[in-house]
Amino acid sequence: MIFALVLLALLILSLLSNVGYFLSDIMRVGGKHARTGGPRLEETVLEDNGAVSKIAVVEVQGIISQMIERGGHNMVELIKAQLKRAGEDKKVRAVLLKVNSPGGEVLASDEINRAITEFQEKNSKPVIASMGSLAASGGYYVSVPCRWIVAHELTITGSIGVILSTWNYRGLMNKVGIRPLVYKSGRFKDMLSGSREPDTITDEERQMVQVLIDEVYTKFKNVVAKGREQAKKQNGKLGQELSADWEDYADGRVLSGTEAFKLGFVDERGDFETAVKRAKIIAGIPEANLVEYRPRYDLADLFNLFGQTDAKVVKVDVGIEMPKLQAGQLYFLWPTVLN
């Protein structure tokens, strides 16, 4: 009975706290942090060094995607909102992009890349990328517009390329006696369908898909060249310049942090602390507090969650979370199983 009463009291306090946040947001309409349609963020101090200046830490963790996550927002929206807060706060002198990702969706990666580029141009605040254990493909794509890139010598990076995957399960259908009935408006409408006989896929169709992939791949290489060239102009002799034969290594292969440094894909070898020190040097500040903008959830998100719940969906936890990939979609992704 006592335990139940304590739980009830804690629940009431939690609800009152959320109501307070909710009403506070409503009453501050027009203020600096007025409630908007984007993620609601709370500043959290990661490291208090007793300084006036701040360095904002923005994480790119896991598969880069525009899929809606908890709270009704996706990774791209969250990162854009975090950059906006960092730009509005005059005490924030630099941003640390903490990357640990194998890549992900092409469009999502490109939007984050553009957001970082625009943030630096608009606010004149440097973004320093700190690569963790993995910053490959799309993970490198979002890092390359940064003013400075730090990678650990054992970081897995590179994997510059594009992949489009689908499954052909027609053989399995034939074994169980299932045949598809397809009605289409044009002869190419089902060219990525997994129910087609493999020998009916024409060279023309393969060429069309390859042209699309090559176009996106060229975009990737242009982004790398432009990002590294811009960083070299700003960093001068301190930064690394792309090697003359860098495109020979932009063939999908992965690189260690040491190899990436030699080829000019990154500027410095080190860990997160190295990136923090570099951010202070570039920003011209002796010390700074490390802060992070974390999503805040209130009653509105609770109601939204109830509205989206589908009783027919059951999630089974098997100890691992598989990447949320969709067949037929282009990815900047290093295709490996993440532990």
Describe it for me?
This protein is α/β, with parallel strands linked by helices. It has a domain of 213 residues: Alpha-Beta Complex (2-enoyl-CoA Hydratase, Chain A, domain 1). Helices cover 39% and strands 19% of the residues. It contains nine helices and twelve strands. Strands 1, 2, 3, 5, 6, 7, 9, 10 and 11 form a nine-stranded mixed beta sheet that branches. The protein has a three-stranded antiparallel beta sheet with strand order 4-12-8. Helix 4 links the parallel strand 5 and strand 6. Helix 2 packs parallel to helix 3. The two termini are 43 Å apart. About 9% of the residues have low confidence.
What is the CA-CA span between the terminal residues? 43 Å
Largest sheet: 9 strands, mixed
Helix fraction bin: 25-40%
How many DSSP helices?
A: 9
Question: What is the ordering of alpha helices and beta strands?
Answer: HEEHEEHEHEEEHHEHEHEHE
Q: SS-based structural class? A: alpha/beta
What portion of residues belong to β-strands? Answer: 15-25%
Q: Please tally the β strands and state the result.
A: 12
Q: Can you tell me the CATH class of the domain at 36-161 and 226-298 and 326-339? A: Alpha Beta
General form: flat
Rounded mean pLDDT score: 84
CATH topology (level 3) name of the domain at 36-161 and 226-298 and 326-339: 2-enoyl-CoA Hydratase, Chain A, domain 1
CATH architecture of the domain at 36-161 and 226-298 and 326-339: Alpha-Beta Complex
Radius of gyration: 24 Å
* CATH homologous superfamily (4th level) name of the domain at 36-161 and 226-298 and 326-339: 2-enoyl-CoA Hydratase, Chain A, domain 1
The low-confidence parts are: 25-35, 305-322
